[in-house]
Amino acid sequence: MTRARRMWKALEPFHAITYFAPETRQATDALGLKGGWMSYFGCRAAPLGAVGPEFVAAVFYNFHPAMVARSLPDAWTYAPPEQLLAARLTAVDIAVRRLFPDASFDRAAELARRAAELAPIAGRPLAAANASLEWPTDPALALWQATTILRESRGDGHVAALVAAGLSPCQALVTISAAGGPAKEVFRLNRRWSDEEWAEASDDLRDRGLLDASGALTSEGRALREQVEETTDALADQGWRALGDESTAELHDLVYPLSAVLMADGLIPADNPMAMRWD
């Protein structure tokens, strides 16, 4: 496993508290938002401002555009982005205190903030938007914000790799599922591409020689998928290289146990749309 992938595995679950802890939904319900997906799209897109569904579908990449349009721009009529930013931070604060009542976050926050400030943001809209936010003074929240910047920087780079590989949003999901990632049903539930759209994407991949008749990746398909992942890791490693081996390893060792608790306790489902597997 590359350094960049090890760090993604260590940090992603801590960032994902905002999506899976009930406190976020409770906070956005109190503001009038309707349902979990409006909460998700509103909170995650809030750093970008009151943008429309087309922009969000483009930068989030693998969600069905119609799914995004069911939540945006309506979310902004209940709460403007500034209010949702405050709500998500308050929700994370409550959730982290509940999940880790005795933890100290000072050193992890210090290292993670340094890493986030070194992470590449050029050409990475979600990373840049989150990096522009004011840093929380509380160490637990500073750690969460840093992990958010780092995961969005990696995610923006991943989108660039998918675009360069010529994989459409639905094709990206088809190929990662075929490579041993989350099942089609997980993506259908969480990304909302229809059976017909999934089949159309698969047919195109077959025409390109990337899938075989059974829906498995061909050797060319496996090579392309590996290329995407290698490019994603290489782009993300720029920041870790700048932070240095010693500080990167220390941050990993501080946050990995926290993420292990989140995965073991089931806050984040074992078969999740982030393709985060734990062992």
From TrEMBL:
Superkingdom: Bacteria
Pfam entry (one): HTH_67
InterPro entries from the UniProt entry: HTH_67
The protein's name in its UniProt record: SalK
